[in-house]
Amino acid sequence: MELSKHFADISSGAIQVPRTDILPDQEFLSQADDIKEYCNVYKRNMAPFCKHYCASIPFVFEEQCRIGMALLRMARCLPDEQVLTFYETDSPDGTSARTLAELASGKVITLTNGLHTVNRKKFEELCRHPFSYFYLGYFCDITPQLIRTLPNSNVFADGFDVIYENVTFQFYDKDRLEQIAHLKKVMKDDGILICLEKLHQIDAAQYEKREQVKDERYKSLYFSTTELIWKRSKILSDMKVFQVDYETLISSLKQHFSYVYLLWNSTNFYEMAASNSLQKINDFLSFLPLPFIPKEFNFEDDLIAPRRV
What we know:
By secondary structure, this protein is an alpha/beta fold. It contains 14 helices and eight strands. The chain has helices at about 1-10, 25-30, 35-45, 50-55, 60-75, 95-105, 115-125, 145, 155, 175-185, 205-215, 225-240, 245-255, 280-285, and strands at about 85-90, 110-115, 130-135, 160-165, 185-200, 260-265, 270-275, 305-309. It has an eight-stranded mixed β-sheet, sandwiched between helices. Strand 2, helix 7 (about 115-125) and strand 3 form a beta-alpha-beta unit. The model has no long low-confidence stretch (mean pLDDT about 95).
């Protein structure tokens, strides 16, 4: 309950507010004009929780826009009568979903769930179009039965084309196999699951080294030392309980999907994409802009191109 209250306070902007704007790197923006546009709309759509999130995970702003840009390009290639359906788990204010749907102008329909009434309030205040929906509750509530009760449920009736698990599983338990199975119930057979998770390291010293890089070289730009200490003691210690390691996540994904790719790494955070459709995963990967992550934050081999694992 205490952790939930802390997240509600962050969502309302009462605590843990970045002291300066989070801006995407110019190197990332220089790839294409449509990336600049996407980042501008994403920044405009940020609510307090998203600002905190982007100030807490090094260069996740750029990565959220990179993923969104790939999905937008995919959607624009669909036949006129088709739309891309997208669900993001436990994303308090739905910034990514709202941005993607806004720029797609009807070619992408999204669903987001959040746990607090302040999340729904911020979502409704900032949503400028009719293509995104919000459910107040847990990701584990999202079942085929529940979807049939939602507004415009016919759009989601056949399942989602893409599901983005955004640092969600670790707040519930360690059973990644079952958690992925739950999401697959509302995903199309040829859909794509993208997972962004904070992972344990087998070597505890390596984990702490990465945390130190994150805090000292990135988060310190946005938060005071007092705020960093408070978060580590009040939030991060609880968040670690249900984290898993890299091999556990990979193994769980491979038991459900034929194709699994590592997309991105930033300190202890990893992002992967998985699908049972070679065509769909290849389409998605082909539309991805180049990633942006400075070497001091990247602890994996070269990830300029996604790596099959």
